[in-house]
Design brief:
Blueprint: E1 2-6, E2 9-11, E3 17-24, E4 30-38, E5 44-51, E6 56-58, E7 66-71, E8 76-81, E9 90-98, E10 105-108, E11 112-116
Parallel strand pairs: 2-11
Antiparallel strand pairs: 1-3, 3-8, 4-5, 4-9, 5-6, 7-8, 9-10, 9-11
Protein backbone atom coordinates (compact mmCIF):
# COMPACT_ATOMS: atom_id res chain seq x y z
CA UNK A 1 0.00 0.00 0.00
CA UNK A 2 1.29 3.46 -0.90
CA UNK A 3 0.15 6.59 0.89
CA UNK A 4 0.42 10.20 -0.22
CA UNK A 5 -0.54 13.05 2.10
CA UNK A 6 -1.49 16.52 0.94
CA UNK A 7 -3.12 19.70 2.22
CA UNK A 8 -0.58 20.97 4.71
CA UNK A 9 0.55 24.57 4.87
CA UNK A 10 0.67 27.74 6.90
CA UNK A 11 -2.51 28.93 8.61
CA UNK A 12 -3.31 31.53 11.23
CA UNK A 13 -4.60 30.54 14.67
CA UNK A 14 -8.32 29.90 14.50
CA UNK A 15 -8.10 28.90 10.85
CA UNK A 16 -8.83 25.63 9.10
CA UNK A 17 -7.03 23.13 6.91
CA UNK A 18 -8.08 19.90 5.28
CA UNK A 19 -5.53 17.13 4.96
CA UNK A 20 -5.93 14.24 2.55
CA UNK A 21 -4.37 10.79 2.47
CA UNK A 22 -4.63 9.00 -0.86
CA UNK A 23 -4.06 5.26 -0.78
CA UNK A 24 -3.10 3.04 -3.70
CA UNK A 25 -2.05 -0.55 -4.15
CA UNK A 26 -3.75 -3.32 -2.17
CA UNK A 27 -6.35 -0.99 -0.65
CA UNK A 28 -8.74 -3.84 0.10
CA UNK A 29 -6.33 -5.02 2.76
CA UNK A 30 -6.71 -1.80 4.79
CA UNK A 31 -8.27 -2.31 8.22
CA UNK A 32 -7.92 1.21 9.52
CA UNK A 33 -6.42 4.57 8.59
CA UNK A 34 -5.04 7.07 11.03
CA UNK A 35 -3.50 10.49 11.22
CA UNK A 36 -0.55 11.00 13.52
CA UNK A 37 1.54 14.09 14.14
CA UNK A 38 5.04 14.85 15.29
CA UNK A 39 6.13 18.25 16.53
CA UNK A 40 9.83 19.17 16.61
CA UNK A 41 11.58 17.39 19.44
CA UNK A 42 8.52 15.38 20.39
CA UNK A 43 7.24 11.87 19.81
CA UNK A 44 4.75 10.96 17.12
CA UNK A 45 1.23 10.96 18.56
CA UNK A 46 -2.15 9.72 17.45
CA UNK A 47 -4.54 12.37 16.16
CA UNK A 48 -7.47 10.39 14.79
CA UNK A 49 -8.32 7.03 13.27
CA UNK A 50 -11.12 5.57 11.18
CA UNK A 51 -11.75 1.89 10.59
CA UNK A 52 -12.93 0.22 7.41
CA UNK A 53 -16.34 0.06 9.07
CA UNK A 54 -16.38 3.78 9.74
CA UNK A 55 -15.69 3.86 13.48
CA UNK A 56 -13.66 6.87 14.54
CA UNK A 57 -11.39 7.72 17.42
CA UNK A 58 -9.79 11.05 18.38
CA UNK A 59 -7.10 12.31 20.68
CA UNK A 60 -8.58 14.39 23.49
CA UNK A 61 -6.62 17.41 22.31
CA UNK A 62 -8.45 17.54 18.97
CA UNK A 63 -11.96 16.36 19.90
CA UNK A 64 -14.56 18.83 18.70
CA UNK A 65 -12.10 20.55 16.36
CA UNK A 66 -10.90 17.82 13.97
CA UNK A 67 -13.00 15.42 11.92
CA UNK A 68 -11.70 12.32 10.12
CA UNK A 69 -13.68 10.95 7.19
CA UNK A 70 -13.24 8.57 4.29
CA UNK A 71 -14.14 8.80 0.63
CA UNK A 72 -14.37 5.27 -0.72
CA UNK A 73 -14.86 6.51 -4.27
CA UNK A 74 -11.24 7.66 -4.51
CA UNK A 75 -9.66 5.73 -1.62
CA UNK A 76 -8.92 8.88 0.34
CA UNK A 77 -9.14 9.70 4.02
CA UNK A 78 -9.49 13.34 5.02
CA UNK A 79 -8.74 15.20 8.22
CA UNK A 80 -10.70 18.42 8.55
CA UNK A 81 -8.97 20.64 11.08
CA UNK A 82 -10.83 23.65 12.46
CA UNK A 83 -10.03 26.16 15.18
CA UNK A 84 -6.35 25.47 14.74
CA UNK A 85 -3.95 26.39 17.53
CA UNK A 86 -0.19 26.99 17.47
CA UNK A 87 0.25 23.74 19.37
CA UNK A 88 -1.23 21.88 16.38
CA UNK A 89 1.95 22.72 14.46
CA UNK A 90 3.58 19.45 13.41
CA UNK A 91 4.29 17.12 10.55
CA UNK A 92 1.13 15.09 10.00
CA UNK A 93 1.49 11.49 8.87
CA UNK A 94 -1.02 9.07 7.44
CA UNK A 95 -0.81 5.48 8.67
CA UNK A 96 -2.73 2.38 7.64
CA UNK A 97 -3.01 -1.03 9.26
CA UNK A 98 -3.52 -3.82 6.75
CA UNK A 99 -3.89 -7.57 6.43
CA UNK A 100 -1.18 -8.01 3.77
CA UNK A 101 1.44 -9.40 3.68
CA UNK A 102 0.37 -10.29 7.23
CA UNK A 103 -2.32 -9.19 9.64
CA UNK A 104 -1.27 -5.98 11.32
CA UNK A 105 1.15 -4.75 8.69
CA UNK A 106 1.60 -0.98 9.00
CA UNK A 107 2.41 1.52 6.27
CA UNK A 108 3.24 5.20 6.69
CA UNK A 109 3.13 8.16 4.37
CA UNK A 110 5.95 10.70 4.18
CA UNK A 111 4.04 13.41 5.99
CA UNK A 112 2.79 16.91 5.36
CA UNK A 113 3.75 19.96 7.40
CA UNK A 114 1.13 22.03 9.17
CA UNK A 115 2.23 25.34 10.66
CA UNK A 116 -0.17 27.39 12.76
CA UNK A 117 1.22 30.85 13.30
CA UNK A 118 0.29 34.50 13.02
Amino acid sequence: VQLVESGGGLVQPGGSLRLSCAASGNIFSILSTGWYRQAPGKQRDLVATITSGGSTNYADSVKGRFTISRDNADNTVHLQMNSLKPEDTAVYYCRVVTTEPYYGMVYWGKGTLVTVSS
